[in-house]
Amino acid sequence: MRRWYAVDWLVAGYATFVAGLAVVCAIPQAPLLVAAHATLVAGMWWLPPRGASWESPRPGDSRGRARLRVIARFLRYTYPALLLTPFFEEVTLTVNAVAPEQPYWFEPYLIAADRALFGGTPAAMLSQGGNVVLDEIMHGFYLSYYFLITAGIVRAWRGPVRGRPTPGAGFHTAFAGMMLGFILSFVCYPFLPARGPWEHAALVGGLRPFEGWVFTPAIEMIIAGAAVSGGCLPSAHVSGTWALTFGLFPHHRRAARWWAVMALGLSVACVYTRYHHVLDVVAGVTVAAIAAFAASRLRRAS
């Protein structure tokens, strides 16, 4: 543990939090969550340390072995990103754990805020005024989340110039900030459970269906198989993407500008596609700023 980085403690702390929440709130799947998260932390204990001799190429390595060493090293440093999907999916089990007698109790406040600020539901107002081309563009921005996270991690790892030592300058700060952005959002869900407009017939019932050729059906297929009711405020898509974007700025300014443009499109798309309320996006950007600042402070203190 003395060789753990801030991101390791973050993952272990969140895993412990979820297991403890499951036990305290006595959710039926508590034994499964406790076992899974204990196994995760135990596995982290046995991971090879960063910076050890196994990372360095050796004279006797074949080309395949050298390539395998590079891949293993990258995965060793970035493994927490692989946990984001299972962490998000298990929100289904915990989102109403704190107040099971009032499922999704916070969503009326989000609906009321939308109406007070905009005179209606922006998710309905925006999408109803769109067309097939705009549908496709907005769903493309929504799908860009997967590219932004994956390519952003690789960009931070390699740095602006290929061939320089990895991880690149600022990688640990950017990566820790991204993970903290996601995890802070996940922590909020059991305490502020709310669903997006797309799950409310009263809000979006009777609206025109979305159309498109590639991105629209792709997102609809993903949502059909992996959507989580209640993972709404803050938007984890927004918090994670913006936190990574903020983390890229100090050392990868040119790339960060492009990431910011795409992240802005993603933020609008979250509302247009009816998956989020406006405050979900605002909260996501706020969480991202907090996460990026905290990660930079942690890095300076380490």
What does this structure look like?
By secondary structure, the protein is mostly helical. The protein has one domain. It has 14 helices and no strands. It is globular and about 65 Å long.
**Would you tell me the overall average pLDDT?**
92
**Gap from first CA to last CA:** 14 Å
- Low-confidence segments, ≥5 residues, pLDDT <50? none
Number of helices, counting only DSSP H or I runs of 4 residues or more: 14
Biggest sheet record: none
> Class by helix and strand content?
mainly alpha
Regarding quaternary structure, what we see is single chain
- The backbone outline, from C-alpha atoms, is globular
Q: Briefly, what is this?
A:
The protein is mostly helical and 302 residues long. Helix content is 66%, strand content 0%.
Record keyword descriptors for this entry.
302 residues, mainly alpha, 14 helices, 66% helix
Write the layout of secondary structure elements.
Elements: H1 6-24, H2 30-45, H3 63-78, H4 84-89, H5 91-94, H6 107-118, H7 122-128, H8 132-158, H9 171-188, H10 201-204, H11 215-226, H12 236-248, H13 253-272, H14 278-301
